[in-house]
Amino acid sequence: MGGPLRFGIVGVGKISEQYFASLGRLPGIRLVAVADLDAERSAQVAAEHGVESLTVDALIAHPDIDAILNLTIPIAHVDIATRALAAGKHVFGEKPLGLTVAEAGPMLALAESAGLRVGSAPDTVLGTGIQTARQLLDSGAIGDPVGASASWVSSGHEQWHPAPQFYYQPGGGPLFDMGPYYLTALVELLGPVVRVSATTRRSTRERAIEVGARAGTPIAVEVDTHVTALLEHAAGPSSTIQVSFDVWTSRHSPIELYGSSGTMAVPDPNHFDDPVSLWTPAAPEWTEVAPTAGYLQAARGYGLADMAQAIATDRPHRASGLMAMHVLDIMESILLAGAEHRVVELVTTAEQSAPIELGSTPESW
Q1: Which side of the chain, N or C, has fewer Cβ within a 10 Å radius?
Q2: Which residues contact 81 (CB under 8 A, 6 or more apart)?
Q3: What contacts 12, CB < 8 A, 6 or more positions away?
Q4: For the segment 190-231, what is each residue's pLDDT rounded down to a tens digit?
Q5: What DSSP assignment string belongs to 219-285?
Q6: Among the residues of the chain, which ranges form H helices?
């Protein structure tokens, strides 16, 4: 590959705005075209960014596009990715990788057989927040890791999103929507998970859209809205995670790591660069730690840029499809464990990605 990785975006909904905000500082990738089922929206976004607006089929077949950034809704992730891979394109997609391991497996197999890359959000773990936490953990800042807790709770996306129905359909819910951020961070910090147990439930609260032109429209809830799970990591530590659309407020920290000689407060893995704090017996008060690792000022799109650089230099890329597959396996296993009230063994694993030195930026690639 000579020059920037040329890519097209399929799906220019709400999340695309965060990607567009960072593209200007990522010289290793270049946007060529966009596509959306809403042709008017696609044309508007294309005009704003000086690129072509195409149909989905035309974008996937475009000879000047090397990769597809897949920002469609979860139910379409595997279909769009498979079509792009069949057309010889690399793929980086929004989370989750797919709805089930069985669905996503053939897509990853296709990529491997074709020598193509698959990457997946969340790429938030590439920022200074999670990378600093990992560097501190690996350096023994809290001793040997014993366990961790993670929590993300909300009263529901219908309070701010003008079209939130897909959050309450298969591929949504608090686990598939927000779980990937927290689970990916836990795996990057503590290593892969081997088994899970869980409790899950669906609240009786009736929901309706609360903002925008469709305010008042009822929302059909087809997923569990409150999930609590216990994870056993292959290296020995255990972690707990709670995700919910049923909690009005909470004081829980996003993630805490517990070690033999201290505790670490890990920042929100939905963000890139919030600070890490440490508490140890030698310094028995919370102390904020300056960043020691990670891409500086990272934002959505850095995972695609990291993949582009990995393709150019023939190294493994971070925010990989294999990591996303393991996280998908964890989530699917959590729901199965909750439904059947049993411990579920995972069928996948993943390696922690290579650490990122502090100061590494796409501008220096």
Answers
A1: N
A2: 68, 70, 91, 93, 107, 118
A3: 34, 35, 36, 41, 42, 45, 71
A4: 999 999 999 999 999 999 999 999 999 999 999 999 999 999
A5: E---S-SEEEEEEEETTS-EEEEEEESS-S-----SEEEEETTEEEEEPPTTSSSPPEEEEETTEEE
A6: 16-23, 39-49, 56-61, 77-86, 101-114, 128-138, 173-190, 302-313, 321-340
SS3 22: helix
Residues of the chain with pLDDT under 70: 1-2, 361-365
| Residue type for position 360 | S
Q: Which two tokens stand for residue 71?
A: 């920002």
Report the interhelical angle of 101-114 vs 321-340 (nearest 10°): 160
CA dist., res. 250 & res. 266, Å (int): 17
Residues 24-40: tens digit of each pLDDT: 889 999 999 999 999 99
In the chain, what is the greatest distance between 2 CA atoms, to the nearest angstrom? 61
The predicted structure's pLDDT at residue 365 = 47
